[in-house]
Amino acid sequence: MVLPVFLFCLAGLGALALAMDRHHADALGRDPAPRARRLLQLGGAAALLLALALAIAQAGFAMGSTDWSVQLSLGALAATALATWWPRRLPTATLLATLGALATWALQ
Amino acid sequence: MKEGFRQAMSWLHTWSGLVLGWLLFAIFLTGTLAFFRAELNQWSRPELYPMGPASAATAARAQEALLRRAPGVTQWIMHLPDERQPAVTLLWRTGNGRFETLLMDPQTGAVREGRDTLGGEFFYRFHFELRSAKVTRWATEGRWVVGGATMLMFVALLTGIVTHRRIFKDFFTFRPRKGGQRAWLDAHNVTGVLMLPFYLMITFSGLMIFHTLYLPAGIAALYRGASGVDSAAYFAESSGEPAERRALRRRGGTAAQPPLPLLPLDPMLAQAGAEWPQGRIGDLRAQRLPDGRVQVEVGRHDGDRLQYRPQRLVFDGADGRLLHRVDAQGPAARTYGVLYGLHMARFAGPTMRWALFGFGIAGSAMIATGLMLWVVKRRQQAARQRAGGGTGAWGMRIVETLNIAALAGLPLAIAAFFWANRLVPADLAARADVELQCFFSAWALTLAVAAALPARTGWRVLLALGGLAYAGLPLLNALTTHAHLGVTLPAGDWALAGVDLSFLATGALLGLIARQVPRAAPVAPLRDGELAHERPPALAERS
C-alpha cells in the first residue's frame, strides 16, 4: 500500500519545512526556538527514513527505493503547495499526515 | 577563470540550458507523453475498440490463427495482451523475408485492422531519435542529436544544483505573487529541485541507453574477431545468452528454413507459470536453430521487475522440454538493465505512471520557466540600462520567438497530430506520414505566427488555440468514432476515457495559462538604483 509511505514523506517534509525560519514564521507568526527546530529536523528526518524502510519492506530494495523517491517528490510538492497557499495550515497538515501514516501503517 | 566557481557554473547553466533548451523541451515533453504510449496507441486506433478479453487459451488460439493465415511462417514473435495493450501483437516472417505485423483479437483469433498511424509510438520515437516519418534513414543521426542534447541537459542539471545558492533554504519556497523575475525564478527552482532525483535518473539513464552508440571503443577493442568487430556477440553476451545460442544472432544464420509446425505451447506456458509464480508471461518466440531444431522462448512480462530485458525460458519445440533459463545477471548487465528499466518505467502501475507523467510535465515546466527566465532577466537588464536596441534586441527577439514556438507551439502541434489522426481518411495511402506532416506543418506555422506577431499576442493566440484544440478533441472523437467518452466512461475503459479526459484537462490548463498572459506592456523604466524585483508587481515588467 502506497499510503503510509506517502504520508510519512509528507509528514517528514512538513516538519522539515516548519523547522525553517521562513515557513515557521508564516505558519505560527514567530521564528522557531532552537529546541523546536532540532526536534522538527530530527523528527522530519526520522519520518523520511521510516518511509524508506517501509517502502523497502513492502517491495524489496529496488522497487522500494524507487517508490520512496517518487513519494518523496510528491510529498515535497504537497508540502510546498501548503507552505505557499495555506501556510497557517501547515502544522495541522503535518500532524494529520503523521497520524494518518501511523494509522494506515498499523492497519496494513 | 577570474570569476568564482559558482559564477562559472552559472554561466554554463545559462548557456547549456539556452542553446538547446527548445529541443530539450520537445524531447522532454514527447518523452513524457511516451509514458502513456500504449494508451495513446489505443486512442489512435479506435477501430480496434473493443477488443475481446484475454484468457489462458489466447496463445494457442493466436498460433493457430497465424498458421492459417501464413502457413509458410518460419519465425514468429507473439506479444500477449495486458491491461495496457488489449490485442495480441504478432510479428512473423516467411522464408528470409521482412517481418510483418498484425494485431489479433485475443478471444476470437480474428485479425483486427486499425488505421495506419504511429499513434503513441510517434512521441516515443521522436523523443529519442527525432523520428519524422514512419520509415526513416536518419535514426542514428537523430539519436546522436538527442544524445548531445541529453548531455547538455545533464550539464544544465548539475550546474543548476551548484548555482542554486539557497537550495535548502528555498526548498519549499514559491512566491507567485511577487511577479516578474522572482516568480519565474521560484517556479524554475521549485520545479527543478523537488523532482531532482527523477530528472537526474531520467537524464542519466537516457544517456546510458545508447551508450554503445556513443562509446563503441570498448566493444571494438574486446570483441575484435578475424572479420572485424563482432558486436552481435557482445549484445548476445550482455543479455545473458548461453554460448550455443549466439549462433542464432549471426546474420545469414537462417538459410532457407522449412516452415514451423504447430507447436505445443500450453505445457510450456504451464511450466513458465510454475517458474514465475507471481509473474506474468510477456511474449513467446518461435524459431529454428541453424541445425533445424525448433526452439520456443517464453519471456516474462517486462513490467514484473525493475531490470529491463526480463527473464526468458527456452524450450525445445518438439517435446516442450525446458532447455535454458536466460537472464543477464552480471554486475554490468544488471546495472544497465536497471537504468534502462527505470527510464522505460514498464514496472509502473497506474498510480506510479501518473506520478512519473506528472514529474515529466514538471520537468518540461522546469525547462520552460528557465527559457522564460532568460528573457525576463535580459528584458529587465535592458530596461535598467535604458538600452534602445542594438545587438541585444534582436537576440532577445529570437529567443522570445523560439520560446513561443516551442513552449506554446509544440503543444498546439501535438493537438494537430491528434486532430489529423481523426480527420485524415482511414484508407489514404501513407496516412501515417500525412499525420506527421500535419504535426510538423502546424509546428512550423506556430513559428511563423510567433515571428510575425508581438510577443504577448503570440503567446495569447497560440495558447488559446491550443486550449481550444485540446478541448475539442473529445468532441471530435465523439463525432468521428464510436470510442468516445459516452461509450468508454460507462464501460469503465479507463485507457481510452483517460486520454479523452486528459485532453479536456489540457485544454482547460492551456486556456488558464492563456488568461494569465498580461494584456499591455507596462513600461515605466526603472529609475537609477531601483532594482526590478523591489517593485510591486503591477509596475514591474512581467512576461
Rounded to the nearest angstrom, the distance between the terminal CA atoms of chain A is: 8 Å
Mean pLDDT of chain A: 95
Tell me the major beta sheet of chain A: none
Envelope shape of chain A? elongated
Rg result of chain A: 14 Å
Provide the helix percentage of chain A. over 70%
Report mean pLDDT of chain B, rounded to a whole number. 90
Estimate the helix proportion of chain B, in percent: 55-70%
Spell out the helices and strands of chain A N to C: HHHH
Order of helices and strands of chain B: HHHHEEEEHHHHHHEEHHEEEEHHHHHHH
State the low-pLDDT regions of chain B, or none.
249-253, 538-543
Total beta-strand segments of chain A: 0
Class inferred from helices and paired strands of chain A: mainly alpha
> Count the helices of chain B. How many?
19
> What is the terminal separation of chain B in angstroms?
34 Å
Low-pLDDT windows of residues of chain A = none
Query: What would you call the structural class of chain B?
Result: alpha+beta
Provide the β-strand percentage band of chain B: 5-15%
**Strand order, sheet with most strands of chain B:** 4-3-2-1-7-8-9-10
Summarize the structure.
The complex is a heterodimer of chains A (108) and B (543). Chain A has 108 residues and is mostly helical. Chain A is 87% helix and 0% strand.
Structure explained in plain terms:
Chain A has four helices and no strands. With 108 residues, chain A is mostly helical. In chain B, 55% of the residues lie in helices and 9% in strands. In chain B, helix 2 packs parallel to helix 15 (391-423) and helix 17 packs antiparallel against helix 19. Chain B is globular and about 85 Å long. Classes of the chains: A mainly alpha (108), B alpha+beta (543). The A-B interface holds A 2, 13, 16-17, 20, 22-23, 62-63, 66-67, 69-70, 72-74, 76-77, 79-80, 83-84 and B 169, 171-176, 190, 194-195, 197-198, 305-307, 338, 342, 347, 351-352, 355-356, 359.
